[in-house]
Amino acid sequence: MTSILPEGQSSFERGLAVMMCIAARGEVNIVDIAEEVGVPASTVYRYVKTLRGLSLIEEHRGSYTPGWRLLELSGQHLTHTRLAELGVSVLESIVEGTAETAVLTVRSGLNAICLRQVVSPNPLRYAFEINQLLPLHAGAGQRVLLAHAPDSVIAKVLADRLARFTDKTLTRQDLIQQLTHIRQSGQAVSHGELNPGAVAISRPVFSGGEIICSLTVAGPQTRCSSNAWAHQASQALRTAATQLANAVELPRGKAS
Q1: CA geometry: angle 180, 202, 185, nearest 5 deg
Q2: Which CDD domains match (predicted)?
Q3: What are all long-range contacts of 100-103, with beta carbons under 8 Å and residues at least 24 apart?
Q4: Which of 33, 154, 162, 218 is 20 to 30 Å apart from 143, CA to CA?
């Protein structure tokens, strides 16, 4: 890969290039940053240490993602904060209507993040961790975000190795077909793609003409396999998505 920096650039410009690489990729490791920016990995380590200290980036298990200050500068922090504030009551309405776990997920680069969730009252239930990084290609909520992401993001995800989490994780060809189906039908359904035995239905939430998050309801196959449950869940998600979109009311260009 050709360096994004021409020769003779200052230390300040190299630091900005490192930050821009992380912002554009969403999640990236030291080796890939060094290759893209065109500087030694030891140099990248020095820059990411400074950027972490300023809360411009965060480190997760050896990979780097945009921090809250960088999200704030790009407008994403405002969007996510607003969604976090409004999301819980909307998720509670989904749980009340379905008795299953409801999740609000946003996209950050080439990953999805569980921003908020309200868990099912049932002892047997499925749940994520808040701020957990999730793959865009596996799971209903994540796939909704991918289906409505920019073409460049979709191309990068499809070009990468698609990790298989269960024997029901979609293949690349199936994923391409599903992305088209999601855009046409307005929702995604998954069966055990990320967690064995889990069933999930998800819908996108739009504001200002852009997707800002996905809303998902998920539960065990033993309770969530009937057509009646699927219809009930879809209705609850449709109502919740409309309520959240109306509450956020973001101007065009401010969505994450």
Answers
A1: 35
A2: HTH_ARSR (cd00090)
A3: 100/125, 100/217, 100/218, 100/219, 100/223, 100/224, 100/233, 101/125, 101/126, 101/127, 101/217, 101/218, 101/219, 102/215, 102/216, 102/217, 102/240, 103/127, 103/128, 103/141, 103/215, 103/216, 103/217, 103/218
A4: 33
Q: Cα 22 to chain center, whole Å?
A: 15
Nearest-angstrom CA–CA distance, 175 and 7: 40
Report pLDDT digits (tens) over 103-147.
999 998 888 988 888 999 999 998 888 778 899 999 999 999 999
**Contact of 121 with 138, CB cutoff 8 Å:** no
CA distance 147 to 44: 33
Structure-token pair, residue 225: 């396999």
**Which domains are seen in the chain, by residue range?**
11-73 (1.10.10.10), 75-248 (3.30.450.40)
Q: What's the number of CA atoms in the CB half-sphere (13 Å) around residue 63?
A: 11
